[in-house]
Amino acid sequence: MPSPDASPSVSVQDLKKVFRVGGQSVEAIRGVTFEVPRGESLAIVGESGSGKTTLARILMGLERPTSGTVKLGGEDLPNGRLNGRRRRRWAERVQMVFQDCYASLDPRQTARGCVAEALAVHHKAPRSELAPRAAELLGRVGLHLDALPNSLSGGQRQRVAIARALAVAPDVLILDEAVAALDVSVQGQVLNLLADIRDETPDLTLLFITHDLAVVRQVSDRVLVMERGLVVESGTTDDILDRPTHPYTKRLRESVPDVGWKPTATTQV
Amino acid sequence: MTDLLRIEGLRIQFPGGSQMRDVVSEVSLAIAPGEAVGLVGESGSGKSMTARAVIRVLPPTARVSGEITFDGAPVLSMASKQLRAFRQKDVAMIFQDPSVHLNPIRTILDFLAEGMRLRGVTGDAARSRAKSLLSQVLIDDPDRVLDSYPHQLSGGMLQRVMIASAIDGEPRLLLADEPTTALDVTTQAEVLAIIDRLRRERGVGLLFITHDLELAAAICDRTVVMYAGRTVEEQGSMAVHRAPLHPYTAGLLVSRPHVSQKQARLQVLPGRPIAAYEAPGGCSFAPRCAHAQPACEAEVPAFRALAGGHVACRRAEELRTAGLLKEVTHAES
Ligand SMILES: Nc1ncnc2c1ncn2[C@@H]1O[C@H](COP(=O)(O)OP(=O)(O)OP(=O)(O)O)[C@@H](O)[C@H]1O
Ligand SMILES: Nc1ncnc2c1ncn2[C@@H]1O[C@H](COP(=O)(O)OP(=O)(O)OP(=O)(O)O)[C@@H](O)[C@H]1O
Ligand SMILES: [Mg+2]
Ligand SMILES: [Mg+2]
Q: Which CATH code fits A40-55+81-254?
């Protein structure tokens, strides 16, 4: 047995996930294998519907794989439904900021209450420290107001979710399109914050699901490219962005909007 | 030519503590038929609220003043029958958060068919129309998607369902609130091509809310920049890019990451974004502006014509001449 410290932070072996919708089956993930060393930042890019969020939900223990294995720091994802204490233990190690953060925030809880709750549940701060620590975390993502989710703008809600995930200080942080709704100046702040956090906690592993290749360049060490439930290419960020080899990756690279770029339909419908 | 949409002096307030607080203080913009106008700006600056005011779907506690006209007709004073007709025939909005606007216990077909029913399209005709709409937005298994519930679809699929529903009614004005944030760039390019065609061929007016200045430059004729509830700049989209007029816009251009080169840290604007009601007297950007002078804090700068656009900055000419608003390209930095 390798010691848990030497094992990769995330290890996924031949993972498959099939959903049933009515009588049909949807193969969301069709056999995915990869490892992420401790402390690495991995970007996952790919077509809409290629299985990125499903993969993240499996890592979070929110979805059972149809087959294959998932390990965090050498430890297998527990079998069966995660609830109660096991759910909390797993959540302490892996946190996720959801693409649809509206659905993941409790509408009755204010921004500060939400972050304070995460601190309390995972025993990250004594009672008297909860409110000031929560405010501090929100400040780090550039949010200085306290309000219920439905009176926050899209980008403000997204930042509450990021602060809540950071509150838990997980080993693995999964960000699913977490900066897509942020304007560039706030996005820049959040990306810089993540870079600072990586410097402060070199063991933190980041999985960054994003469609924005400029963000990929800025935050990731390596990139995984997904298409229709499969990994079609992976490599260092520079290789993938500067020397893509798979046709899909090439198309992706060419579709990045730039001045003078025009939206064009390449497929006939 | 008369404008399709005209917003003048829009102000939106919410009750906060003992008084009303601004979330939008002063927004003015116009869209001609077939024109695409980009709306960019700080998170929380009031972009979504502005778009929602146009179709009057603000939260019930909101108080709205100013003027919004569609094809010359005042929107804010429309009676409910007129308003219903306006929403059904003339305008469609693609919301920033699809899940808020989709009923979790109804299928995608139910959702799409609802709008069609109002126009008398039902049954098999509705299903086949829905199928063709989904194919247009590049969903490759439309039958499965039609029978799915929202939680069974990916983020980008939901966003495309919203786009399909918005273009279905053949509106004359399309309000798109960050419509492609969940789409990979290849799908984004194709979906935007559909919207682009609508405005070029059918004269649809487009308000395109985005935080992506490159995207705004690529698909919009003009771009409007908001800060803390106010319009602070308006110019041709390319010009906003190459020669911004407002220091905030210049700051945005510098702070974005770039696909061709990694930076140790992004050069972000100092300080934090503020809501309109927190804005100090004078220029609301002054506390974060590298070029602010005491006089900037004395009064709110007028939104005035300059270099073919408009800007709300006392020092705009001076800063432009001194080359202080030039975009710093990443090769130089
Ligand atoms: N609970 C579910 N039931 C049925 N099908 C599902 C479910 N969740 C996801 N799917 C399907 O699995 C596929 C992959 O979805 P997933 O959300 O993982 O894609 P994604 O790569 O995150 O896409 P996007 O970039 O658009 O967010 C899609 O076809 C989706 O419809
Ligand atoms: N129901 C509400 N009650 C009070 N304030 C609200 C309400 N809804 C939104 N706000 C506030 O109004 C301001 C403007 O919100 P809006 O959603 O228009 O921002 P936005 O420019 O679209 O930002 P983003 O880019 O983050 O989506 C925000 O500061 C927000 O906190
Ligand atoms: Mg997803
Ligand atoms: Mg918004």
A: 3.40.50.300
* List of residues 6+ apart from A40 with CB closer than 8 A: A9, A205, A206, A221, A222
For B259, the domain range is 244-330
User: Are B66 and B186 in a shared domain?
Assistant: yes
β-sheet with A172-176: strand ranges across: A94-97, A172-176, A205-209, A41-46, A222-227, A230-236
Which of B160, B188, B220 finishes a domain?
B220
Query: In this structure, what token pair is assigned to residue A225?
Result: 């490219």
Q: Which residue has the higher pLDDT, A263 or B6?
A: B6
Nearest CA to ligand 2 atom 24: B43
Beta partners for B261?
B258
- Shared domain check, B268 and B190: no
Q: pLDDT for B144-164, tens place per residue?
A: 999 999 999 999 999 999 999
Query: Contact A190/A27 with Cβ under 8 angstroms?
Result: no
Same domain, B123 and B203: yes
Is B227 contained in some domain?
no
- Say yes or no: B216 and B249 in one domain: no
Chain A residues in contact with B252 (beta carbon < 8 A): 183-185
B237 located within any domain: no
Instruction: Give domain limits for chain A.
Output: 40-55+81-254
Residue B235 placed within a domain: no
Give A 122-151 residues with CB within 8 A of chain B: 142, 144-145, 150-151
Query: Hey, what are A264's tokens?
Result: 């064009």
Count CA within 13 A, CB hemisphere, residue A146.
14
| Among candidate residues B39, B162, B38, B40, the one with its CA nearest the CA of residue B98 | B162
Write b or e for each residue in A41-74: b if 16 or more Cβ atoms lie within 10 A of its Cβ, otherwise e.
Answer: bbbbbbbbbbbbbbbbbbbbbbbebbebebbbbe
Residue A28 Cβ inside 6 Å of ligand 1? The answer reads yes
User: Candidates B143, B146, B153: which one to mutate for ligand 1, based on the most atoms within 8 Å of Cβ?
Assistant: B153
Nearest CA to ligand 1 atom 1: B152
Q: What is the pTM of this model?
A: 0.91
Specify whether B73 is located in the same domain as B211. yes
Q: State the ipTM, two decimals.
A: 0.87
Q: Which tokens belong to B305?
A: 């014509």
Evaluate whether B238 touches B207 at the Cβ level (below 8 Å).
Answer: no
Q: Contact A263/B190, CB-based, under 8 Å?
A: yes
Give the ligand at the shortest distance from the Cα of B44.
2
Does A180 contact B at CB distance below 8 Å? yes
pLDDT exceeds cutoff 90 at A40: yes
pLDDT, tens digit, for every residue of A102-113? 677 888 889 999
Q: Which two tokens stand for residue B22?
A: 């601004």
**Domain annotation covers residue B63:** yes
